[in-house]
Design goal:
Elements: H1 2-8, H2 11-16, H3 18-29, E1 30-35, E2 42-43, E3 47-48, E4 54-55, H4 63-72, E5 81-85, H5 89-96, E6 102-106, E7 130-136, H6 145-155, E8 156-165, E9 174-175, H7 182-189, E10 196-197, H8 200-209, E11 213-219, E12 233-239
Length: 240
């Protein structure tokens, strides 16, 4: 049902009436087996997307959004500044409901609703500007990723945290900048606009070379649990 609705309705219409659309959609999935920790919805099932992601029908959160919110929400206290790159709408709404924080969003591609359009290799922000940076599924799109990492380090405050996630592969980092054909990039790197595969160790080492102290959070539970988390998920926390 969800996939048919997405197919036959224009994206601008869906975005404009998203809250109403999701409220109606929620009625089809309401129950007591699962709970979305982003919006509190009680569900008999999450929506199973074409990519085998478990979407919340009420807020649209993905498993990675729900895991991120579980980790980051306890840190959102006091007068802190947060930079969210290419923000998911569900996390964006939650952040904007916390008046104490200075929440800044940026998206270079124009795909996401954001306040700024930072080039991550030359960010138009001062040194030591942000206490927290969320950099989810960004670096695999950027050829000059080490320059982007140095910029993230520069704009992060001392003792700040940068939460980083990308698609990961086993072994070493795989990249070849001579590949520009979208179809071949999809074949080699998993998506038409990706320029590399990171390994967890490879990404962590690059972040450390940029100045960070980087640690890996690895989740390997065999069950998705009540919140519909991803079974195997890795997040890197880069500290300044």
């Amino acid at each position: 049902m969800y996939h048919l609705i997405k197919k036959f309705f224009f994206r601008p219409w869906m975005l404009r009436y998203e809250r109403l659309f999701r409220a109606v959609l929620y009625l089809l999935y309401a129950g007591f087996t699962y709970r979305c920790n982003c919006c509190g919805a009680r569900l008999r099932s999450f929506i199973h997307s074409a990519g085998n992601e478990w979407l919340c029908p009420l807020c649209g959160s993905l498993p990675r959004d729900r895991r991120l919110w579980q980790i980051i929400s306890p840190l959102l206290t006091g007068n802190i500044s947060v930079l969210h790159l290419s923000p998911s709408r569900c996390i964006d709404r939650l952040m904007k409901n916390i008046p104490e924080i200075n929440y800044v969003t940026s998206d270079f591609s124009g795909e996401f609703n954001a306040m700024c359009r930072f080039d991550l290799t030359a960010v138009a922000a001062g040194d030591n500007s942000f206490d927290i940076i969320i950099c989810y599924h960004i670096l695999e799109h950027i050829e000059k990723d080490f320059q982007a990492m140095k910029e993230l380090y520069r704009i992060l405050k001392p003792h700040g945290k940068c939460f980083v996630q990308t698609p990961f592969t086993e072994g070493a980092i795989v990249e070849d900048f001579s590949v520009t054909d979208p179809a071949l990039r999809k074949l080699l790197f998993g998506q038409h606009d990706h320029v590399r595969w990171y390994s967890t160790d490879g990404l962590r080492q690059r972040l450390q070379s940029a100045g960070f102290t980087a640690s890996l959070m690895e989740f390997t539970a065999t069950e998705k649990g009540v919140n519909g988390f991803k079974v195997n998920e890795c997040i890197i926390i880069a500290n300044k």
